[in-house]
Design goal:
CATH class: Alpha Beta
Oligomer: single chain
CATH architecture: 3-Layer(aba) Sandwich
Largest sheet: 7 strands, mixed
Structural class: alpha+beta
CATH topology: L-fuculose-1-phosphate Aldolase
Helix content: 25-40%
Distance between the termini: 32 Å
CATH superfamily: Class II aldolase/adducin N-terminal domain
Shape: globular
Number of helices: 7
Bound molecules: zinc ion
Length: 237
């Protein structure tokens, strides 16, 4: 197993667990390796307590055997979903799938989550895509995810959870964490009968332009970044 990829998965698995994004043994993570291969968490592994033995190497080509099976570990039953996204999206190196509470609550209803609400969401999530229910681990679900999802989008898997593909695992987890926060915010606003102010699309476009300018200025050190918004400069959009 590729040592660095395993360490990334162990690190971000623990992070996601500590942030409440993981319940029981739900969720799985994958990272692209060199040579048409990828690393993915093993079936039954808890993302909060992973070791290098819980990370299995697979081929992007589904016809190739899985190396991890020699160690008695089998890749996640949802591996096909990861494989198809990594194959479709060459810029993506990481895929994160989980079932955080509020995200899953939204996925189990027809509640629309408005975008253009908070800066983190505008910076990190380019679109939310609802994926109709198909059984976990089924070829049908993997095909639907592959055909509907692009990089930096949040795939809302109906009656199941979320999935995201990004340039790094940090970004994929950040998409999940940001949407979970937004879903909680929307649910609590509804429970309290509060009306959310949604910003117009022009404001989102202008905010992304503003981020690009700040990023360019920070790169040439002409403008010191405000510590409170510095993290937004690392957004992919
Ligand atoms: Zn699942």
């Amino acid at each position: 197993m590729h040592h660095e990829a395993a360490q990334q998965i162990i690190h971000w698995g623990r992070y996601a667990f500590e942030r409440g994004l993981i319940t029981a043994c739900s969720g799985n993570m994958s990272i692209r390796l060199d040579g048409d291969a990828f690393a993915i968490t093993a079936t039954g592994a808890s993302l909060g307590t992973l070791t290098a033995h819980d990370v299995v190497e697979c081929s992007i080509d589904p016809a190739c055997p899985t190396k991890g099976e020699a160690n008695g570990k089998r890749p996640s039953m949802e591996t096909d979903m990861h494989r198809r996204l990594l194959r479709k999206l060459p810029e993506a190196t990481a895929v994160f799938h989980a079932s955080p509470l509020y995200t899953t609550l939204v996925a189990c209803t027809s509640l629309e989550i408005p975008l253009n609400v908070i800066p983190e969401e505008m910076a990190y999530i380019s679109r939310v895509v609802r994926v109709p229910y198909r059984h976990a681990g089924s070829r049908e679900l993997a095909e639907l995810v592959e055909s509907s999802l692009e990089i930096n989008e949040l795939g809302l898997l109906e009656n199941h959870g979320m999935i995201a593909a990004a340039r790094t695992m940090a970004e994929a987890v950040r998409i999940a964490e940001t949407f979970e926060f937004l879903a909680q915010l929307v649910c609590q606003a509804r429970a309290a009968s509060l009306e959310l102010k949604v910003l117009p699309d022009e404001v989102r476009t202008d905010f992304l332009r503003h981020l690009r300018e700040m990023r360019a200025a920070a790169a040439t050190r002409t403008m010191p970044a405000d510590p409170a918004t510095r993290h937004l400069l690392r957004s992919p959009m």
